[in-house]
Amino acid sequence: MQEQKKRRADILSRYFGYDSFREFQEEAIDAIMAGRDLLMILPTGGGKSLCYQLPSLLMDGVTVVISPLLALMHDQVSALKAASIEAEMISSMQSMEEIREIEKRLFRKETKLLYIAPEKLASEYFRAMLSKLHINFFVVDEAHCLSQWGHEFREEYRRLDILRRLFPRTAIAAFTATATEVVRKDIVDTLALVDPLIVRGSLFRKNLHIEVEQKQKNGMAQLLDFLKGRERESGIVYTLSRKSTESVARELCSYGYSAAAFHAGLETEHKRAVYDDFVADRVRIVVATIAFGMGIDKSNIRFVVHITMPGSIEGYYQEIGRAGRDGLDSHTLLLYSASDMLRKKAFIDELEDSEYKSASYEKLREMMRYAEGEECRHAYIARYFGERIENCESSCDNCKMPEILKEDISTAARKWLSAVYRSGQQYGMGYIIDILRGSSERRIKERGHDTLSVYGIGSEYDKVQWSAVAERLIEMEALERNEYGGLRMTSVGVEILKGRRKVFIRKSRLKKRRKRAARAGSFAEPSTLEELRFERLRRLRSEIAREEGIPPYIVFSDRTLKEMSVKLPSDMDELLSLHGVGEIKAQRYGEAFMELCKELAGVEFEK
């Protein structure tokens, strides 16, 4: 046991450049080493890949990794090869000669990890070839894709139930960043996982700063305002239509930003070029539909912007999770509007499956509640996925909202709760608003609700404002809906009704305010010595990456370069002490970076 731990530590340091495991990684590795089925739900950047890559190096045989995107497989194989780990991929993009050569290496036991797309399992020839190999375990990456209740359902993933039938005694390890309870159950059932260990990490990522704003016009001024000072950073801007990706990219380019459009309608070669340019830092910003980004293995994405509202919390969280995988501070901005919701609803209207359509409507409504809500953004997302966490305090706009922007609506909240209670806790939002505003509708008089003490006591607000009050109470879990959509009070609501708890709301929800239009500013120069050093180190990284034909982050991550810009290592021991620097990379790239660090140590900063 002690010897195995030592081997793990050696591999962790030598190949991956880490001194210790992150939370949950050893637990997952133990399960895989024991031949047990596994479902791991860990946010993007939590270190899922290491959980199957490391045990593969410790076990006999080859690990087969099923991944949904060719670009993702290519990047992961490139990263593994850069760390001197024997990895290959087989895809439809390769020639028959290339595939046959890879198969030879597999049978010669010269490959530890084989990456394939799920479609490959439809080939009888390929299945026969796999049956002749010693497969230590299967990996299903982005496992949420196999659930019809997930946000990125793929029919070919649904057919992965074939794994258990063809290889009944081979363990399966499934990985995803997000999964609701229904999606988790679907993954386990579809893959026929046997007594799986379910490892679930916290969804909270403190380095991810979340902002949400109501969109003004087309959101372009807000986007430009957000991008000020981020000219040298990598980011993704998500929008709804193919046409808007191109128009927004053109607009950004006209302001001097390095931007390109990406959508499913582009030629395959063009999409690959945009992807390669983004990964290599030749293009800083990709403006895309959701066709871009799933599983993207780029650690230094510093921001993600949505200029149209996503259709679900699942999709939104997956997309913002692509920022800050290296653990450094990263920022996200969501711009939303009622028209976004109507456009999304129009897409859902065209669905044929009534059950799926109903679920999609509810996901969209939940997304709108999130956008307009005032609870901690991180806590809201976590609660949606079944986790309870404390408020982030400083990593979202709601937690950082100045008191001056809030209004005390405790009196209005008590009126609302009293109306719910006195009318029998069974009616929907619109009906309660009619009671509060003294509506003369026949149904209210027929039920005798025009004689209630709360009838007509809410004339100070219009219907939209009273709806905002109700939504605020639902966010606070003071109200909950029954199975028919009627509202009833919770214990939190009782506390508010009795005056033991106050209720605050963002003023803008009760009265719309004009926001100033943003102007694009001039690009900022490095303002500190560390920033100057970081830019020089990043330039060297790009040169090395270009020469080797690999993405820059595979050489060293931004986090490593940030630490290097401060410590300026001058010998191998100092270099190896940096985050993410293992022996392999130190030997391969260390000399060039240490030479530059020595030069930078004598540079003075002038502003």
What does this structure look like?
45% of the residues lie in helices and 13% in strands. The protein is α/β, with parallel strands linked by helices. It has 4 domains: 2-200, P-loop containing nucleotide triphosphate hydrolases (Rossmann fold, 3-Layer(aba) Sandwich), CATH 3.40.50; 208-400, Rossmann fold (3-Layer(aba) Sandwich), CATH 3.40.50; 404-510, Orthogonal Bundle (Arc Repressor Mutant, subunit A); 529-601, DNA polymerase, domain 1 (Orthogonal Bundle), CATH 1.10.150. The strands form 4 sheets. A 7-stranded parallel beta sheet has the order 3-4-2-5-6-1-7, with helices on both faces. Helix 5 links the parallel strand 3 (87-90) and strand 4 (113-116). Helix 1 crosses helix 3 and helix 17 (410-422) crosses helix 21 (491-497). The termini are far apart. The model is unreliable at 512-522 (pLDDT under 50).
List keywords for this structure.
Rossmann fold; 7-stranded parallel β-sheet; 27 helices; alpha/beta; 6-stranded parallel β-sheet; single chain; Arc Repressor Mutant, subunit A; 607 residues
